[in-house]
Amino acid sequence: MTEADVVYSDVKFTKSKEKATVTSSPNESTYAEVKILKTEPSAGSQQQAAGGSKVTAERVAVVVLSALLLAAVIALGYICYEYHQTTGHLQKLTVENAAMRKNITETRCEVIMVQKPCPQPPADTCHKCQEGWEQNGPQCYYFSTVKLTWEQARERCRRDGADLVKIESEDEQSFLMQTLRDKMTEPEDKFWIGLTDSVTEGTWLWTDGTPLNKSLTFWSKGEPDNWTGVNNENVDGEDCVRMGTKSGSGLKWWFDKSCTAPQKRICEKSAVTGRPTCI
């Protein structure tokens, strides 16, 4: 025990009277020194105080973490909102741009046809598509509403002097995607294009026999996967390509599919080209 743990106190005791007639004087008092120990706090009290501090610290930590999590959720929601807004605006601009180019092409042809005076036919050429076909530059596209196998779809295109579409640029892929979104009724409502590896597995060829340019492909994530179905029920795998998506952004929306699965189709042929005549 240390010196600091001891408290000294003076206690005065008075001698008892020997006789009733005798009274002790103040000088006869006896003093005794008594040591009183300080009271130590019990272990239970210390544990209770420590426990209370720990609980308070945990509550503060939970409140802080909850606030940070809420702030992160709000920030993430705002970022997602901005992303969808930007994507929607970009898609709208793309559609408007395609429509504007189509209108400009048609208007230009009409102006050339009626220009006066006209001593000789204009040197400019004009591209036109027949009714029911969509025009993009010098090419015309037909989007069917009937579902056929890949071979049947190609035969129908050839009857109209066309073939299944061959995609040769990002501009063409963008035009087709924007057009398809207006024509699709559900996510699986996709369209055949003229690409297949039915001759040699893994060697993708267009219908005209030219190989796929590997630097210009638009496969969706994980495609092509040549899926054989459950318990290999699709023994031939997936050797033909379809495209389309009802939502989403970007241009990578090609999917390999069994050539015998009925799908809609996209036919492509060159627009009618000619020199306008004076009228």
UniProtKB/TrEMBL annotation:
Keywords on record: Lectin, Membrane, Transmembrane, Transmembrane helix
Keyword hit for Secreted: no
Spans through the membrane: 60-81
InterPro entries: C-type_lectin-like, C-type_lectin-like/link_sf, C-type_lectin/snaclec_domain, CD209-like_CTLD, CTDL_fold
Domain C-type lectin: residue ranges: 136-268
Alphabetized SUPFAM superfamilies for the sequence: C-type lectin-like (SSF56436)
GO molecular function, one term: carbohydrate binding
Gene3D superfamilies per the UniProt record, alphabetical: Mannose-Binding Protein A, subunit A (3.10.100.10)
Chain segments annotated as coiled-coil in the UniProt record: none
Annotated PANTHER family: MANNOSE, PHOSPHOLIPASE, LECTIN RECEPTOR RELATED
Protein's name in the database: C-type lectin domain-containing protein
Classification of source organism: Eukaryota, Metazoa, Chordata, Craniata, Vertebrata
Name of the gene this protein is made from: LOC115579585
